[in-house]
Amino acid sequence: MQASDIPHDKLTGALRRKSVKKNVAAIHVSGKLTLLQRKLSNVLLLNAYDTLVTRAKHQIDARTLCLMVGYNSNDMAALKQSLRSLAETTAEWDMLDSEGRQEWGVSALLSYAKLAGGVCEYAYSPALAEKLHDPKVFALINLNIQRRFTSGHALALYENCYRFVRTGSTGWWPIDLFRRLMGVDGSTYYESFKHLNGKVIKPAVNEVNKTSNILITPEFRKMGRQVSELRFLIKENPQLAMLDIDDGAAVRQGAVYGALVEVGVSDRLARQWIAEHGEDYVSEKLDYLKGRGAVSSPVRYLTAALKGDYKDATPMPQPSPEAKAAAEQGVAQRQAVSAAEAERAAQIDGERKRRAALMARIRSLVEARSPTQRDADRRLFLASLTDELARQEFARLSWSSALNVSEMVRFWEEMVPGAFEDLEAPAARA
């Protein structure tokens, strides 16, 4: 079966988290779900997680739900079919209970679901809700990574492997269990290991390694001439910092991000460093940089400090004569700026401040929305963009995309009339 995702960056409400607790019992046995159905199940569990054992039923806006999992927002027929499939899929667990006794159980993935008045209402059986909410054994599944998957087999394999990342291996699985995990049990075609390996294992492994924050390698055991068991060796993907970066809205509000930008670090590099090293470590190296006094290239010095874990007793490399000469030349050039250029710089600064005020207002409008509404707003705005460069920029930077400020102002003025009345934004409204 499959389960869920709950964001971990904030603790006040399930939908405020970036990743989801995937309970071992929930992950370990997979039903025959399509990729979108698997993602739908995760979003439903994410929405319900904080009240799984305290409420008998849960609700989410149906239009928002469609947008979050990739359906056309008006395609209620597809949503109904997926909800029907979840209600028809059984979840099975076989584990030790709180007293150490073996416990086996089975339940429909959803006990019921209904659509009425634009709202999706659904529920889990009490027994399954208890298992899904059990925090004792879980893996953190990042929703930003989940969205990248294009194959249901790959996402199922990722979910079943990721919880073993710290042990480095899944352990040996019988081939029959693996077919069940991938949802291909009962298919005579996949009874052939050649077909299973060629159509399921190899493509899924390739997508996990290309798409996610782990790298997996399959190994096989034979009984006679037949493959009887397999396992996956697991290690963290060194590209984790690049794969795990979200739209950066929360990171950009932090003091560490602001300090990085102040010394000349680019937006993407600042977010990458924070994601890869953590704010505390980056802050420590920023303090170290400040202790060095004036340097000709703060970004280069900071890069070396992060990579070499420089501390107060660590001598920093001195700039070469060429670097010193280049720095001196830069100072001379800056001192030679004419009055006309200075005036132009002031105009640019004024425009920059005006745009910064607009961007700040847009951020406040976004933050006022619920997490599910934010996701829907982002999808709606992206769909409204026709220029490919603008779409790529927004997909990369979300509401911090300066290239799209005019369109974003128009979008939010329609959503919240008068939102920019107190700001002078003639260029944005043109």
Automatic annotation (TrEMBL):
- SUPFAM superfamilies in the record: Winged helix' DNA-binding domain
UniProt lists the family membership as follows:
Belongs to the initiator RepB protein family.
Checking InterPro entries in the record gives: Initiator_Rep_WH1, WH-like_DNA-bd_sf, WH_DNA-bd_sf
Classification of source organism = Bacteria, Pseudomonadati, Pseudomonadota, Alphaproteobacteria, Rhodobacterales
| Name of the protein in question | Replication initiation protein
Q: Which organism is it from?
A: Sulfitobacter aestuarii
Annotated Pfam families: Rep3_C, Rep3_N
Which part of the chain is the Initiator Rep protein WH1 domain? 20-161
